[in-house]
Amino acid sequence: MPFSRRVIGFVNLAHLIDHKFMLIFPTAVLAMEADFGRSYGELLALSLGGFIAFGAGSIPAGWLGDRWSRRHMLGVFFIGIGAAAILAGLSQSLWFLAVGLTLIGLFGAIYHPVGTAMLTAHAAALGPQMMGREIGLNGVWGNIGVAIAALVTGAIAQYAGWRAAFILPGIVVTVIGIVYLMLVPEHASPPRKGGQPQPRVPRAVAIRAFAVLALVGISGGVVFNAATIALPKLFAERLLDLIASPVGISLVVSAVYLAGALAQLLIGRLVDRFTLKQIFVPVAFLQAPCLFLAGWLGNAWLLLPCLGVMFAIFGQVTINDAMVAKYTSDAWRARAYSLRYLLSFGASATAVPLIALVHDRGGGFPMLFAILAVLGFSIFLAALAFPGYSGEDGHREDAGSTSPQVARA
User: Most CB atoms closer than 10 Å: which of 54, 195, 296, 379?
Assistant: First the structure.
């Protein structure tokens, strides 16, 4: 197997693991209320530290990836997040559980700035027009992680208890980390193909693009996190006539999340054929109306806007990753991704208190999703302001070639 393809395989698996582990708790919490005697909102608040760490940790992770070793940092990710999950599953108190969840977020923060930088560098080594395709496929792996989080966690929690829902995946991922360190040595950079220099992006265009990315990162981070966290509870409340068991709810949640995989496959293909603005505007247009309808509909009708929401928010993730890949050189890319994810995941941490506050104090899901719809509309306005830069075509040759050092494994 070519070295770059092997690295991309582990990077994709890490993306699945990252999203899966960050969403164990929102499903497992449904089985914790009896053990701890606390409400859904009170227990959900325990994950706040993890989501803050998930955003804040991206800055040191990106810096270490660029300055030390991306390969080593991904190894730390695998083993660290596995051990943190085991720790959370062994917790006997709310404080101990909160520490475990915070450590999951801290180690989980490594993946996006480091793994995405590794992905784009090695994708460029596979061919001149592989960037969008590989970003899209990588997004599918992350989406599968989101989907199986609800399904696997719900099944394990129902039959073996919520503790096992943390401990068993933690053991598996720790072993994966050891295998990764054995099979991906720190010895090579991906071979360069194409060799053409990356065209310089006009300064005004770059500033405008990253200003839009900053706004979208903040609004999109809140929408993404709130929607993915709230969906299991939303379905538990609204689909009682159709589904009665935790496993049944998890199956439906997983199916809705997998709809996002279709978006990422499609967007990944389109990124190599059209400008980002041509793709971004129609995807962003879906969010506000679908979010608003999700707050009000029930039973089977609820599934339609939820499918639209997942299609839009996961498709947008692929677009945002492509923005960074096309507008930065590889030497700075992990740090650029760390800033992008600091904004996104930092803002996403507010989703936890937002859900807890609105849900437990009478507003319920109609008010929550109305707030998210406003944020979704701001994303659409930002998409309209994004530059339709024709010079993006040149980036398809080699999105990271401004630096003589193409990548570190």
Answer: 54
